[in-house]
Protein 1
Amino acid sequence: MKLQDLDIIVTAPPAPGWGGRYWILVKVTTDDGIVGWGECYASSVGPGAMRGVIEDVFERHMAGENPENIEMMYRRAYSSGFTQRPDLTVMGAFSGLEIACWDILGKARGRPVHALLGGRMNDRIRAYTYLYPLPHHDLGAFWTSPEMAADSALDCVNRGFTAVKFDPAGPYTLRGGHMPGMRDISQSVAFCKAIREAVGDRADLLFGTHGQFTTAGAIRLGQAIAPYSPLWYEEPIPPDAVGEMAKVASAVGIPIATGERLATKAEFAPILRNGAASILQPALGRAGGIWEMKKVAAIAEVYNAQLAPHLYAGPIEWAANIQLAASIPNILMCETIETPFHDHLIKGTIRVENGFITPSDAPGLGIDVDEDLARAHPFTGDGLHLQMQEDPCDYVNGNAFEGGAPAQKT
């Protein structure tokens, strides 16, 4: 069995567009006709350029290879061009293709991917969700309304979720770490207070920031929200300043989570070694793929740390997250996004029931991809999957964070 053909589909989720502006799906076919699906997570170049990178990685390092030889293909991609260091774009391309290889291997053997990774460790995976507007909420007002956030959180808890994530501390700016404005701190506290009062002890609060703050600013904000006992404080400073993140971790008393922008064990290991975070959030379509993150999970065990795979993408990466989660002892939870498009794209083959996911025993990733639906929604825009704003923090009027891909209004 050898890898033979590659097809790339860039599909755009319809409004409101949760999961990013587009998802890059890869379809890999072997010489004996087995099809594997993967997903390349958000890249720093547009989908046209990324298509070329994916094709190059496949042709250069994978075409004609036995899909079993994942370690060899990984080392080729990781070493390409005399690098042997994480290249976010190359790793994003390889990761989606690597996921497709596991899908192929599972289908060839009639076994789920987790059975090939050491077997089933977890019969249920705890799920969490970001707080999204409910149908009666105003899309513009939602992001600065503690009351609407509490309303959404209560809805999630009533559907069985035991953890909810929100990030009211804006802005999400390319200028790097900044000192939060007092309005942003007050708004963050108000969100935590309202959500905690709404859900009580039925759910954990997951506080996101997207690497927005200076070390001092992150400590200041973290200490302000600490009385509401968040389960985690996500990426409080830019992800490359490992020593500074460790200072935040030691000062705020809230578990630090990070990882959606990291790739390979080379970037995750220093986080653990320096005590910068105790919860790792790899995005499997970027971080190096399933096998590389299985290694990271093993490293995390040594440091008594847990994994909570990140998802702001489509359901193929979600399926990969679940297969990894089923096989490791130190899984905390998995992010999930429930929209009709996510569901229809994999024909309802993954379900969140009462806040938990039961890993499928179906071969491969355990999903059935609706290829026609993916092709029927091509991406035609010019933005990136996620983008940062250029404007600095507004210390006068406050800030309204709507994420790196604001909701589509139509």
Protein 2
Amino acid sequence: MAQTYEERPRRRGRRWLVVLVVLVLILGGLLVVADRVAAGLAERAIADQVQQAITEQDASSAPPQVDVGGFPFLTQVVDGRYERISIVLTDVQGSVEGNAVSLPRLDVDARNVRAPLDTIRSGQGEVVAETVAGTGTVSYDSLAKLLDRPGLKLGEQNGKLAVTAPVDILGQKLTVTGTADVTVADDGKVSLKFADLNAQGLPAVPLARTLLNNYARGISVDVPLPSLPFQLNVRKVEPRPEGLTVTADAKDVPINSPS
């Protein structure tokens, strides 16, 4: 009998411990759900403000995809400072000198973002990022149109910008091929320098080579890019199969359009 008397309190104590653990897990789960719901609301509010800012820059895009990083989110709300906000823009359309330029995708990573609770809730005031880094891709078709050479096509070949174009040299219709060095000019334009162009069947006379070199100089230009959102400044360009990849950054940038 004494042994049974001792076991009952122990069992009751274990039951209360199990109940307590279950309650803690449920409460923790509810807090996580609430945290994610609040983050989702903030992401939608920021996406709306980003879309408005892009429109005011005479550009357009598909609805922005926004992800607020850092956990827990609610403590960041109270503090008014967010570790990271990632923004993905697709089908970005801008224009340069009347020509449409498309960026199939622009990834933006904003760090140390200052966004007071009232700003997120009302949409009034600025959401400012301490640093912003962006990576976008300019389609080769858009870039070729800026060069304004009939039949010219651009692409990537072994990490370089490759060109194919029809030319008329000394009465012969030839196809020119070659590659270009791509750099960022001091004014933020993309500098294209075509050097070693060749054309199969090129007449073996000095004048033919001179005309081909003249064509190369004619398409070796500084190409302006459309104004990127968030005051991004181009730092690097790199030819890739999907297009010309542009890397840009900025500091202390509003990522919304304050009312």
Protein 3
Amino acid sequence: MGGSSNVMPVISKIYCSSSPTMLTVRKRPHVVNGGGFVVLNSSQNLVFTVEGCGTLGAKGELVLKDGDGGSILSITKKGGIAQALRTRNRWNGYLMDYEGGKKFIFSLTDPKCPMSNAIRIHLEHKGQSKGWDFEVNGSFIDRACTIENYKGNIIAQVEESTGGKDLYHVMVQPGHDQAFTVGVVAILDNIYGESTRC
């Protein structure tokens, strides 16, 4: 895909590859660590896990971990009085460091109508020409959606698998951040009431 080698990683360059990367997402039952899902590479090695409710003891809290169990992202649904007045939920992704600190990385707001609106993602910095950095288009429920940057380039695509709804693929384009992509997929999973939802 043109221009993808110029894209800066969202979380870290260690999660970017110089070639297209096919990830396989497999849901876990809710009885296993509060649900969530695991992500395997093409060699069937565990590269990421996403823990849903039950792990942190609260709804709307997700944790993305690497294959060794180290925490990468803490993803929370924003609460408070201001949020209670909104009909749409805002999700914030925070990079977690080895000391337990958190740094804001991105935000995503639920669509007004889950079946027809693109979902916009805003990174920590401001100033992109469209006022947003990434957009999810298509149907996550049908396993037919893309994550595109503000220039319209596809950075990742969620695809159906022959394993049914509990198993699907995410193709990440070269130079793009796989951890960020999986974090977005984790939020979509929760929005649409799948394995990370309590």
Protein 4
Amino acid sequence: MKMFPSIFATAAFLLAAATAHASSLPTYGARLEGFDYPHPVRTYAFTSQAQPLEMAYLDIAPATPNGRTVVLLHGKNFCAATWEAAIAALVDAGYRVVVPDQIGFCKSSKPPGYQYSFGQLAANTHALLASLGIERAVIVGHSMGGMLAARYALQYPAATERLVLVNPIGLEDWKAEGVPWRSVDAWHAREQKTSFDSIRDYQRTVYYGGEWKPAYERWVRMLGGMYAGEGREVVAWSQALTSDMVFSQPVVHELPQIAVPTTLFIGQKDRTAIGKDLASPEVAQRIGDYPVLGKRAAAAIPGATLVEFAELGHSPQVEDPARFNGALLDALQ
């Protein structure tokens, strides 16, 4: 009987700790209202697919311009703010830096009835740059943004000064590799289960080789806060639609057609592959092998340069900003 008070006290303590933890987690709006970006957020209003949309973006001018512009394209589980350290390094080096949130993501509109395609997102980005008077720029894309950047370079080669791909996904055709197709409804059901813990577990396992640093937590809270907020259904539906786009529109088959100078930055610990959870053990083991995929992509893109980061994973710009920024500036020069 003497054990009961201690058991009750322990249970009460654990419940209080869990409640305190839950209350400390942020909640953001469907357009990431409440999460602050490192620079003022601007809005590009335009019409696409017969509906008015707003594209949020950052446009940072250097104190001493070198006359060149760099466009940074975020990944699917990232936002413009994730480029914070790269923005600072590029601006210090004299580059004008433009960082959009794509339609369907972060602080931009999330239309429920939008036909998402990389061609459409590239066209939206090109229209944004035209509205800013930018005719030619370096296009840098990370993760899903790498797929978009490749599509942009294919679609607008004259407007692409240089292409930089940072651990891009889509370096393999997952469906052709044996990953089963999944409906938008199934993607949606999966997205509805997303939480702070599921985001963190996925990123630790797939992005960072099982390792975790406190600095990564900010980006988990950024993403998780949208799923935890009142706009969670809007966010989950947009993410389902864009997941289908990513799976269904590989760019890997067109890499040999890229006709602009290209640099690939590949963290070797990355194991990202869309739909791996549905794949057979044999297929799941084979796909997402970035040491192999990086070399294959560099060989496919005419004249491409490959930079490998042996101890880094999916997001080298987050894991080791100083090293990544130094390599990026070297590539641009």
